[in-house]
Specification:
heterodimer; A: alpha/beta; Pyruvate-ferredoxin Oxidoreductase, domain 3; 6-stranded mixed β-sheet; 6 strands; globular; B: alpha/beta; Rossmann fold; 5-stranded mixed β-sheet
């Protein structure tokens, strides 16, 4: 499965992680012309409960649509982190919210801690754009999709009137990650 | 070049229906099929169609039958519990020969089961869910693009053979998003029901003298006829006598069975020199394809037979495979259903081994690869 890059977005139902996955997949397929599949898994609850969304990007056709050897996993809650981290591959990346996920599991993966939710609520002023901040960070860390493509995909999916807010959130996440990883 | 989009399987199903000319949806929302209804609710009014949310799944199926009788191409979408409720009316549509399309996005069951998890345990219900001997066409797409094109094909087969067609796929395929190209109008062929050419006074809705699929008149176009769930004569009125019941039942079954060459569709991957075959559909078919790729890299001669038409069952194809491979592996998200059909067709000519899983997760390629190594 070379050339296959697997990303898992996880957190609590209602944090917008399925939407984040959809936007990332749209950026990859529609705007960057790559092959991608987005899938999701959630419980019967409308809010709460561990929720995950996965995006697989590849240079060839994708048959099995779920992540089994994860290159990057995002966890915004401790519950999701513990429930879903086991599929991260050796030398993969576990990206966590540094305020909410204090303890991270041990493994052969790299842990990156970023103040995703704090950036959304304090710098942007709206906690609900944490998913877009995370998307910016993931764009920077993975290098799989161009930031221009992600920006276009964000703007095509978010409600009218929130474009500037979401653009700011995306770039805040992107810059935050770039500052930490380089 | 058509329109390129990133769509969910469920959304692609709705787009396929619209492409085929669907102009009526009657339904009752249920996870994981709800997006089909949502999409149709938004789009049908834009194209002059009608969307009705009924009080339950039974009424939803009844509304689809009524819509079709009135000349619409009618669709409903549901999942396990709703599919169970629709069965009686589905049998009615089969006996009265009313074209319509029923989508079943399979989740875990029985009962309310696992609403947000995938399942493949309704596949025998697709065939035998309603009582009596009856014709069944059931399509099983596995990719978003395929859901679109198979939905178009479902409407075409339904109109051509004047019978309900079921499309069955699982929650994963229904909810996942992939790139899809929606072809321009006219690229895919569209079939419409054959209407009578005789005057209304001479119309017999079940006249089988000129073929197994009698022309169908739409209501409100001047043709008046009787529609009943009782076995009936050529004029549609009840006849519960020999030999009419027998000959008409045979015709209903023959309509589908004699046209298997037109209806049965499948995809074969590296089957040419295969010593082990995998029979899989839906998300399990996708998983099997990845397993085949991995096995081939290790030099294992394995191939995949992936049915796009599950009913009528690809009997001849499976029988032919069974006579030239050592084993057929059948992964399915149930505790073993479609494996019985594979065994029936294999008739002991090769080993048939299942991989069964019902915990809400798909069977992954590694599980299939391990089983292939075990049986080769």
């Amino acid at each position: 499965m070379s050339g296959r890059y697997e990303i898992r977005f996880s957190g609590s139902g209602g944090q917008g992680l399925i939407l984040a996955g959809v936007i990332f997949a749209e950026a990859a397929t529609i705007f960057d012309k790559k092959t991608a599949v987005q899938s999701q898994s959630y419980g019967p609850e409308a809010r709460g409960g561990a929720s995950k969304s996965e995006v697989i990007i590849s240079d060839t056709a994708i048959d099995f649509p779920k992540a089994t050897e994860i290159d990057l996993m995002l966890a915004l809650t401790p519950e999701a982190c513990m429930k879903y981290y086991k599929d991260i591959k050796p030398n993969g990346v576990l990206l966590v919210d540094e305020d909410f996920v204090k303890e991270t599991p041990k493994g052969t993966f790299k842990v990156v801690r970023l103040p995703i939710i704090r950036t959304a609520s304090e710098e942007i002023g709206k906690a609900f754009v944490a998913n877009i901040v995370a998307l910016g960070a993931i764009t920077a860390i993975t290098g799989q999709v161009s930031i221009e493509a992600v920006e276009k995909a964000v703007l095509s999916r978010v409600p009218k009137g929130t474009e500037d807010l979401n653009k700011k959130a995306l770039m805040a996440g992107y810059d935050l990650a770039r500052a930490r990883i380089t | 070049m058509g329109k390129i989009k990133l769509l969910q399987g469920n959304e692609a199903c709705a787009e396929g229906a619209l492409y085929a000319g669907c102009n009526f949806f009657g339904g009752y929302p249920i996870t994981p099929s709800t997006e089909v209804a949502e999409y149709m609710a938004r789009r049908l009014p834009q194209v002059g169609g009608a969307f009705l949310q009924m009080e339950d799944e039974i009424a939803a199926m009844a509304s689809v039958i009524g819509g079709s009788l009135a000349g619409c191409k009618a669709l409903t979408a549901t999942s396990g519990p709703g599919f169970s409720l629709k069965q009686e009316n589905m049998g009615f549509a089969m006996l009265t020969e009313i074209p319509c399309v029923i989508v079943n996005v399979m989740r875990g069951g029985p009962s309310t089961g696992v609403p947000t998890g995938p399942g493949q345990s309704d596949i025998m219900q697709c065939k035998w869910g309603t009582h009596g001997d009856h014709p069944v066409i059931c399509l099983t797409p596995a990719y978003v693009q395929e859901i679109f094109s198979e939905t178009v094909r479902a409407f075409n087969l339904s109109e051509k053979y004047r019978t309900p067609v079921i499309i069955a796929f699982d929650e994963i395929v229904g909810h996942m998003r992939e790139r899809i190209e929606i072809p321009d109008p006219g690229v895919l062929p569209i079939v419409n029901r054959t209407k009578p050419t005789c005057p209304p006074s001479g119309y017999l809705p079940y006249d089988d003298t000129k073929g197994d699929v009698p022309p169908m008149a739409n209501f409100f176009e001047g043709y008046r006829y009787h529609v009943t769930g009782l076995n009936h004569g050529t004029d549609g009125f009840p006849v519960n006598a020999s030999p009419r019941i027998h000959t008409d039942e045979l015709r209903l079954i023959r309509k589908v069975e004699a046209n298997k060459a037109d209806i049965v569709k499948f995809e074969e991957t590296l089957m040419g020199d295969a010593e082990v075959a995998i029979f899989a559909y839906g998300v399990s078919g996708r998983s099997a394809k990845t397993a085949v790729e991995a096995a081939r890299k290790e030099g294992i001669k394995v191939g995949l037979f992936r049915p796009l038409t599950m009913w009528p069952f690809p009997e001849e194809q499976v029988a032919a495979i069974a006579s030239r491979v050592k084993a057929i592996v059948v992964p399915e998200l149930s505790l073993g259903q479609i494996i019985f059909e594979v065994e029936r067709c294999a008739r002991g000519r090769c080993k048939v081994e299942g991989i069964f899983r019902v915990d809400g997760d798909p069977i992954n390629p590694a599980q299939i690869l391990a089983k292939v190594k075990e049986v080769k």
